[in-house]
Amino acid sequence: MMVVFRLLASGLIAFLSYAMWAWYANSLVTNDSEVLLKAALVQGTYSSAITLGFTAFLEYFFKKFGANHYCLPLILPRWSQHDHGNPCATKLVIEHALKTSQQKCQGTCLPGALLSPLPALAIQSILVIAINIMFMTPNLWLTILPSIIFSGIYGYAYSFGLSRKLERANVTKV
User: Fold this and answer.
1) At residue 70, what are phi and psi to the nearest 5 degrees?
2) pLDDT of the chain along its 174 residues, tens only?
3) What is each CA distance from 41 to 21, 27, 100, 133, 148, in whole angstroms?
4) Looking at residue 111, what DSSP letter applies?
5) Which is nearest to 117 in space by CA: 169, 45, 64, 164?
6) What are phi and psi of 88, to 5 degrees?
7) What is the pTM of this model?
8) Backbone region of residue 107 per phi and psi (left: phi > 0; alpha: psi in -120 to 50; beta: other values)
9) Using a CB cutoff of 8 Å and minimum separation of 24, what contacts does 161-167 make?
């Protein structure tokens, strides 16, 4: 019951805050109350729904990436192991570059908690841009920029919270 209350409260807060922002942002370029109301309802409804979906995406991507560590130079597609008897010069150069990067990268890997919010943030950003373009929001970037920025802040705060929770669970198991 408490989880449902938190979800409803966060959806309502998202609706009200982003609807008011969209009204204000678009009132800078038009006085047409129908346009302002439409922009406010579109952004408020979208923000309320995406708050719930965004959190579900964060949970999913944290489970995939959060407990791991990634060395940036090694976030590349795997190089094929078959060389048909003669090593290709390009393959040798890339293998050498990867080995050098790996040696220089030791101890400087990124925690998965830094990467896990990025897919959810990309999905959210594409959706908010597309929806506001579809509804012809007059002041598009001023309307959506706070949504993207606050989603990023929320995503990282949530991801780090999950990371701390995972660390505490691992400490109690040891």
Assistant:
1) -130, 130
2) 555 676 677 888 889 998 999 999 999 999 999 999 999 999 899 889 988 888 878 888 888 887 777 765 555 444 445 555 666 677 677 777 667 666 666 656 677 778 889 998 999 899 889 988 998 888 899 988 988 998 899 889 888 888 887 888 777 776
3) 11, 14, 53, 14, 18
4) E
5) 64
6) -80, 140
7) 0.61
8) left
9) 162/58, 162/59, 162/62, 162/66, 162/113, 163/62, 163/66, 163/111, 163/113, 166/66, 166/67
What is the Cα–Cα distance from 97 to 103, expressed in whole angstroms?
10
Which residue type does 62 have? F
Question: Where are the chain's structural domains?
Answer: 2-69+111-173, 72-108
Amino acid at 151: S
Give me 156's structure tokens: 């990282």
